[in-house]
Design brief:
The chain has 194 residues and is mainly α. 61% of the residues lie in helices and 0% in strands. It has a single domain, classed as Ferritin, core subunit, four-helix bundle (Ferritin). The protein is built from five helices and no strands.
Length: 194
C-alpha cells in the first residue's frame, strides 16, 4: 500500500489536494455577531461597504494600469505618484473588506464579482493620452467620494460608528488627498517659460 492510497495518514506531510466544499455563507447575508448593532444596520452597512469596496478595487487596478502606461515629460513623477496612490487604495480595499467581515458579512473579492458590482466605467484596453488617464482616475475618485459620503451619513444614522469612521477617515480623506495631487497635474502650466 502506498501513501497515495491513504492521503489522510496521521502525521503525513502530504497536502490534501483538490478539496471541494459547500458555500457556508451566501454573499449578501450577515451572520449574527455581538457588536451591539442590529441585523438591519449590519446588513445595510455590508451592502454599502461592498459597493465602495468594488469601486475601490477597480480604482486600484486603474491606478496600476495607468502607472504602467504613463508617457511624456512627467513620466517618472507620475509613474511614482500613481504607484503610491495604488498602494494607498490597496490598503483601503483591505480595510473595507475586513470591516464587512467584522460585521458578519461576506466581502466581495473575486474580480469577476467586483466587475458586476462596480459603478466605475471600464477603460479602453489600450493606452489613452496622459490627461485622459488622469481624468479617468479623477472621475472614479469622484464617484467613490459621492457614494462614500452618502454611505457614511446613512450608516451613522443606523448607529454604525465604525463603518462611518472608516468611510470618512480613510476612504474620503485618502480620496480627497489623491484627487488634489492628480488634479494639479492637469493644470495648464507650461513646463518652461521664455
Amino acid at each position: 500500500m502506498t501513501s497515495s492510497d491513504h492521503p489522510t495518514i496521521s502525521g503525513s506531510s502530504q497536502p490534501l489536494l483538490h478539496q471541494k466544499g459547500e458555500e457556508i455563507q451566501e454573499f449578501g447575508t450577515v451572520n449574527q455577531v455581538p457588536l451591539g448593532l442590529s441585523y438591519d444596520a449590519r446588513l445595510y452597512a455590508c451592502q454599502r461597504l461592498n459597493r465602495v469596496l468594488a469601486d475601490t478595487s477597480i480604482l486600484y487596478t486603474l491606478y496600476k494600469k495607468h502607472h504602467w502606461l504613463m508617457r511624456g515629460a512627467t513620466f517618472y513623477q507620475l509613474h511614482l505618484l500613481l504607484d503610491k496612490h495604488a498602494d494607498e487604495q490597496l490598503a483601503l480595499v483591505d480595510a473595507l473588506a475586513e470591516r464587512v467581515q467584522a460585521l458578519g458579512g461576506v466581502a466581495v473579492g473575486d474580480p469577476r464579482h467586483v466587475a458586476e458590482i462596480t459603478s466605475i466605467p471600464r477603460p479602453p484596453d489600450g493606452v489613452e493620452e496622459v490627461p485622459a488617464m488622469l481624468s479617468r482616475l479623477l472621475a472614479a475618485h469622484e464617484a467613490i467620494l459621492i457614494d462614500a459620503r452618502d454611505a457614511a451619513r446613512r450608516v451613522a444614522e443606523l448607529g454604525d460608528d465604525g463603518s462611518n469612521d472608516l468611510l470618512v477617515s480613510q476612504v474620503v480623506r485618502t480620496g480627497e488627498a489623491q484627487v488634489w495631487f492628480l488634479a494639479e497635474h492637469l493644470v495648464d502650466v507650461p513646463l518652461v517659460r521664455l
